[in-house]
Amino acid sequence: MPASRSTFSSRRSSWWIAANGLLLSLLVLAGCFTSVPSGRVRTGAEVLAARHFDLLQGKRVGLIVNHTARLDTMHLIDRLMTEPEVHLVALFAPEHGLRGTAAAGEEIRDGRDVRTGLPVYSLYGATRKPTPEMLAGLDVLVFDLQDVGARCYTYISTLGLAMQAAAEAGIPFIVLDRPNPLGGELLSGFVLEPEQASFVGLYPIPLVYGLTIGELARMIQGERLLPGLEHLELIVVPLEGWRRSMQWPDTGLPWRPPSPNLPTFEAALAYPGTVFFEAVDGSEGRGTDAPFLQVGTPWANAQALADTLNARRLPGVRFEPVTFTPQSRPGAPHPRYEGRPLHGVRLHITDRRTFRPVVTGIHLLHAFYHQAPPAFRDPFIQRPDWLARLAGTDQLYEWLRNGAAPETIVASWEKEVEAFRQRRRPYLLY
Q: Which listed site, 109, 228, 338, 411, has its alpha carbon 20 to 30 Å from 30?
């Protein structure tokens, strides 16, 4: 059964309750915050800093972070190192590394932070879950990563596995909440089927799920989406000033690319749809100045594709014919089709509020697949297993092969998405 907020709070030991009465008040009232004096959203890290890091005073702290964990111009690591009563003893790095410069899929190794000398444990290398040895001597594990809002983005898999590790170690797990860049209202895409579960999708949620990282943590625990979390002391430090209708530009916060190939908010907005092109005989734009905003293949007729897609009048987007040549660059070393001209379309998001990334991605796949010459049509879906992992179902490939209309494919997930919308309600903080 979903855990209520009061039930969630009652799990804490008496000493923890006494130390964190203010936090509990914030959790209860979080949905009432609509603005802050600064005129922008305050992150969970900023809220905790304003309270002099009261939850961490006298504690030995492990911190799961990357370059996005900043307090204004200062990194959270450096800020905590100035707090004499906070004992930061270990750092944990997700995919793309502590500084966010590693390419997608690039293995991250253990090491030491050059600024502080603290040990850095990789959660994207030999293990993707903190080991008991990594957590030895810690009193609390803190998570502060800027999520993207797409199920296949690996930071949320790291979140759940780290929660499991904290539960097994018997230490509290604190999530410093951050905005969902795509907002809290848009839900879209297939709900992940259990047989497609992997590190690019651990939970039975839609591809675009409309939760903050803190809300998702509450749902992972409350819905038992991973085993062993029933006794975890989960604490979410909520945002101030965030509303569900807000997308990233509405927050007043600077965009810090959560990974090298999402350099802009527009790229992140398109990502849940154009990410499908990681599985096809083509390119999702890595190695160019517009990753995830342009897609192409060696054989496509760019103008015909643009005409076809523009004729469908998809909301919030216009398609421009484009030819691009991927080149090796930082964050995208040796991209697919490096040095080869590719032909396709570039997305111009004309209205970010009406744009539907996953719906657009289905139309893109459909248009490319059915334009392909007969000899290229079946090979176009180059990695059907990967497409199934990204989409959350192997049915997408079958629908494409059988000539299903994009509208039919989109309609197939609506009932499950609506059920998810109802299921998530107990875990909303805003």
A: 228
